[in-house]
Amino acid sequence: MTDFTEADKLYMKEAIKEAENAAEVGEVPIGAVVVCEGKIIGRGSNRKNMGKSALKHAEIIAIEDASSVIGDWRLDECSLYVTLEPCLMCSGAIIHARVRNVIFGTTEPKFGGVVSLAKTFDIERLNHKVNYKGGLYAEEIASMMKSFFKKLRKP
Fold this sequence. Notes:
Structural class: alpha/beta
CATH architecture: 3-Layer(aba) Sandwich
Number of domains: 1
Order of helices and strands: HEEHHEHEEH
């Protein structure tokens, strides 16, 4: 079991709020926040349908938001909290943005780019190392995801 701090729990609750915001507008409930020096500087929720773009993942939106707040694409002093294990695309964006830490809720067996499908952050040849841990509020988040898809597929 991974140890999570009270701050980790607080920030993941904020990511969960972002996921709930996504669900309210019919998007898959995935949320993310970027934290730097103890302050949330970026927020994002899944917006693929609304934005009509496969690129509108919560992590990408949160990274763009944070970069605009600090006026730099480098987020090397920041942590990203996200409800679902980042996919391969988002894992790449996290590396390029130089995010220091990623804390995720539940794993994503189909597309997870951190521990499930691929272990992107463990690739030795990359120019940036991302620390990561997962499993924070995993059951709560998995339940939210299952509930969303159950309603979506209801006849």
